[in-house]
Design goal:
Layout (H helix, E strand, L loop, with lengths): L4 H22 L1 H7 L17 H8 L5 H11 L18 H11 L4
Organism: Rubrivivax rivuli
Pfam families: Cytochrom_C
GO molecular function: electron transfer activity; heme binding; iron ion binding
Length: about 110
């Protein structure tokens, strides 16, 4: 019974879900580079915008931090880190914005 078609399908689906989730998490540095986030941000130093580490420290313990950062990534805005506003990224999907936000919050 261990090798029944039903078990094989279930194992395959679990493997697929695991692979997709892992791929999404690993894609964030590449996604940040692809979406030009690296033009203004770096892991441990301010360029134009704040360092990923500083963002994670400020917002990491905030309830719903990932969702709030994802909105900020797409909508842009100013005032939180200085006078230079972050440009909006309206063509970035909500899923990619969430993926980037989750990744930024890992820099604590």
């Amino acid at each position: 019974m261990a090798n029944s078609p039903r078990n094989t399908v279930a194992q395959g689906l679990l493997l697929l879900v695991w692979a997709c989730a892992g791929g999404a998490a690993q894609a964030s540095p590449e996604l940040a580079k692809q979406k030009n986030c690296m033009n203004c941000h770096a892991a441990d130093r301010k360029i134009v915008g704040p360092a990923w580490r500083d963002i994670a420290k400020r917002y990491g313990s905030t309830p719903n931090a990932s969702a709030a950062l994802a909105v900020k990534i797409r909508a842009g805005g100013g005032g939180a880190w200085g006078v230079v506003p972050m440009p909006a990224n309206p063509t970035l999907s909500e899923a990619d914005a969430k993926r980037l936000a989750d990744w930024v919050l890992t820099h604590r």
